[in-house]
Every structure is written in C-alpha cells, then in structure tokens.
Amino acid sequence: MPQASELRLAVLAGDGVGPEITAATIDILESAAARAGLTPRLEALPIGWKAYKKSKSTLPEETLAALRGHTGWILGPTFAGEYPKDDPIKGHPSGYLRRNFGLFANVRPVKAWPQLEPLIPDLDVTVIRENTEGFYPDRNLAWGYGEFLPTPDVALSLRVITGSACDRFARFVLEYATALGHASVVVLHKRTALPQTEGIFIGAFDRLKKEFPKLEVELVRIDTFSSALPREHHRFRLVATTNLFGDIASDQASGLAGGVAVAPSLNAGIKQAMAQAVHGTAADIAGKNLANPTALALSTAMLLRWFDQKTRNKRYRMTAGLIEHGIKGAMTAGVSTHDLGGRASTSAFTKAVIKSIEEAPASALR
Ligand code: ATP
Question: Three-state SS for 54?
C-alpha cells in the first residue's frame, strides 16, 4: 500500500483510444491529487501492440514483474482480436491480468447522468461480477481453451465454477455491501437451467450470509432481473452474479443509464485492484482527440476509494471525490465529447474537468 501522502500507481495505456484516455485520466488525477495533498508516483508500463512490437509479447515479463510490486494500476483498453498468433498471452491481456493477479471481483456501478437524457433518470445499480471463471474460453482451463468443435456440426462450451472462487467472491460482495451501507444484495442466477454450477454459486452466499446478519440476501433469476430492471430498478441497488451474466446485466443497465462510454469499473482482488473502463478500444476514433476519458477517470476514482477502504487514508477518498466532482462540473457547464452529442475534444473536455477540480469548493474535499 502507498505511503500516507503518496499515490503509487502503474499505468498501462493500451491500444486504440487507450493512450489518449489514459493521458487525460492522468492529467485529471494529478490535478485532483494535488488539491487533496497527495503526490502521485506513476509508473508507465508497456502493454498491447506497442509492447508486442518491442518485445513480441502484449504483456511482457517486465510489465508483469513490475505489477507484482504495485497495489493498484490503471488499464487502458486492449484489443486481442488484432494481436498476432505468436503472442504468448494468447487472448485478452485484461483477462490474463484478472486471472493471474486474482482480480476476481469486477465492480460496475451504473448511474444515470442527467446530461445523457437517460431512459431511466434515477437509475443507480451496481453489478458485481465474478471475474475469473464461467463461460470464457480464455480463462476457464489451466491450459488451452474451453470451447470445442468435435465435428463441424457440434460445438461445446465449458463453464467452470468452483466453490473456492464462489466463496471468495461472495465474501467480497457481502463485505463491499456492508462497507457501502447497503441493506440488501440481490444474487442473480439461473439455477433452473444450470443447477450444478449455479447451485455452487448460490451455496456460497447461503453459507456466508449468517456472518452478515444485517444484510438481506435475495435470490432473483437473471431473466426475471432483465425484464424487471426497467420498471422496478429500485429493487436492484446491488446485484452479484457469475461472469457472463454480469457482463450482460451491466451492459443492459449502462444502456438504460445513457451508454457505455461513461461506465467505469474496478477489478478487485484481496491485495490488488485494477481500474478499467467498461468500453473497448474505440478504434474508429483512435488518434483523433475525440475519445471521452470519463469512464477511465471514474474507474480511477473507484480504485482510490478501494485504497481508502483498505487504508482509511482520507486523501484517497478526497482525490476520488474531486475527480467525480470535476467530471460532473464539466458536464454541467455544457462541455461534453462527441459520443455524448457535444463538440469538445478529449483535451478540451479534460481541461474543463481540471478547471472544475481547481475551482471546487472546500465542501468537495470530504
Ligand atoms: P473492442 O472490440 O475493442 O471491445 P468495440 O468497437 O466492440 O471495441 P467499443 O470500443 O466499446 O467497442 O466501441 C463501441 C462504440 O462506442 C464505438 O463507436 C466507439 O467509438 C464508441 N466509444 C467507446 N468508447 C468510447 C469513448 N471512450 N469515447 C467515445 N466513444 C467511445
């Protein structure tokens, strides 16, 4: 964990719009940290195409070794689809990082922004998704892939769910709910169709809930959730689910809240955490100074709140609050990027966020 007055983070810029939004995020972070009395010590590490061109790996050993010494880092988007076949990572670098650093919980808060004319103006739901198992061929076997084609007409997808991964995930969720003052957690499942694997997942919550007597744990089928969310969203403040269901549920919520370009996420383990925007590389606008850095900046604020939970150092919390304040301030002042119907470039939006941070009243420094 960083020292009281310093903020030690690694930064992995990624592909596509990654370098632009990480640079903007760093500028925003540095301005907020300065106001909160934190000194950032940032270490840039190679990843993605740039790393492959230099060392034939999208996640070189030097990056992995350096990350072992970090408590937290910021990851820009990476795009596995375009990497060469001889890349030793063989898949998505972000999946590799989640699995190899035990970042087993993916927290995706979805809040409607009035500036985005959301379908549900008061939507406020956080989806916590198990991050290391499930129907993902790049992460559900010790070696190789979990999708098979025995004949051209027959394809098999394997899903791995283990009791140990479900136990650590359920504990994370219940502790997270308690730390943030939630009264209940909704566990999304499909036990009717997948009784064994979903049974293990639900069983972990059943076993642990007696340690958290103040929390209500409710089971809801994922299909029921999907149809109920638009009309009964107040029932679903904090939901927890398996990997693929969580991916879909959080994107559904993002769509109702105004879009994925502003959706943040945190990948957390026991000792380390990684800030990562929900969106991808946005290759269509890469290098044009058009990308919106909001999702990555808000993900970084989540990482700082996680640091605060671990250390109770209020400067992390203050820096996070200032980042959130700055983004709201820029949007309220009518400055937004093209994806949100505005005219601001990445750099103009970043400048407006920083102005709002610098002008933030003392009450924002809580
Ligand atoms: P990938 O395959 O890398 O996940 P994708 O194209 O499937 O990428 P995104 O990269 O998330 O998915 O892009 C979807 C759309 O949203 C694109 O039109 C893109 O330009 C837009 N978009 C995504 N992120 C941003 C951003 N930060 N700022 C502006 N537009 C964005």
Answer: helix
Nearest CA to ligand 1 atom 8: 280
Per the document, the length of the chain is 366
Question: For a substitution probing ligand 1, which of 279, 331, 336 has the most ligand atoms within 8 Å of its CB?
Answer: 279
Q: Which among 277, 279, 275, 251 has a CA at the least distance from the CA of 264?
A: 277
Burial class of 251 by CB neighbour count within 10 A (0 to 12, 13 to 18, 19+):
middle
Q: Residue 276: in which H helix or E strand, if any?
A: strand 273-276
pLDDT band (50, 70, 90) for residue 4: low
Ligand 1 lined by 280 (C-beta under 6 Å): yes
Give me the phi and psi of 156, to 5 degrees please: -125, 135
Domain contains 111: no
- pLDDT digit string, tens, across residues 30-73: 999 999 999 999 999 999 999 999 999 999 999 999 999 999 99
Task: Tell whether 287 is covered by a domain.
Answer: yes
Residue 113 in domain: no
Please check the confidence at residue 166 and state whether its pLDDT lies above 90. yes
Specify the pLDDT at position 12: 98
CATH number for the domain spanning 95: value is 3.40.718.10
Give the predicted TM-score (pTM) of the model. Answer: 0.91
Domain of residue 237: give its range.
119-257
